[in-house]
Amino acid sequence: MSGDELTRPRNGSVRGVPFVALPPTAVDAPACEGLVVSWHAFDAPRTEAALAAAVPMTGVPVWRVYLGLRLPDIGGQDYLDLLGAKVESAVAELPAVVAELRELLGCGDGAIGLAGHGEGGTAALLAVAEQAVPVSALALVSPIADPARTVAARERRFGPYPWTEASRTVAERLDLVSRAGDIARCDPRTLLVAGATDLLVPAAEVLALRDALTGAGVTITEASTFRMGHALAAEPGMEPRPPIAAAVSVDAALTDWFRRHLTTHPPKATRPLAVHLS
Known about the structure:
By secondary structure, the chain is of the alpha/beta class. The chain has 9 helices and 8 strands. It has helices at 3-6, 48-54, 79-105, 119-129, 147-158, 165-173, 180-186, 203-216, 245-261, and strands at 10-14, 17-22, 34-39, 63-67, 111-117, 137-141, 189-195, 221-226. The chain has an 8-stranded mixed β-sheet with strand order 1-2-4-3-5-6-7-8, sandwiched between helices. The chain is globular.
């Protein structure tokens, strides 16, 4: 890779997964080998490019890569069917995607951090629980760790949800609070960010996830609550836009977290597990 390619943003797709990659350009820290991989939510920002604009983490001296969940028109889709399909596919693809990104971006075999907002947080938690890649640091913003509770919150906005046997199976499979022990085996240093006025993922749920991870044995788990709702961008959240106040606060928190924890905490050795799609 040429010197110019090492210092400019990249975008494209790897194995069919769209991505935006921001280079390590922190002015007060040398570039390090390593990678932070982030996923967006179903709410704004809804694309990899929009999330990269909202939460660029410019001060983190590694490549930050934002992966797309390739969402269709969500309004016409069953929420839990879509959630299961998208996050399980994202996790199944992650090892190969990370390997190709390392080669494409020339970022070596340094530490991996994962980040996610909303349903993107579901993907990040599942990736750790399934030991898809070795993760040193984890930062989640209003993560959907208990989909059944999130459906109850969505019912207040959109009306009754048509539960089926299949959707209940998805909700149980993606109940990541109940998999706190699996997450603790990898022991990522974990930051959880909650919104004080978030009606979709209330702060109390984020704090309950923190308590579950701490109780399961995650060495460092911290939680912060900001004066914000669920969205990190203005609607419709599809295109890159200047960050809103909530995103600025989140960006500062995630930047600080990954600067402190990404390269100083070697992940526990894990055995990659297959993610089975259904």
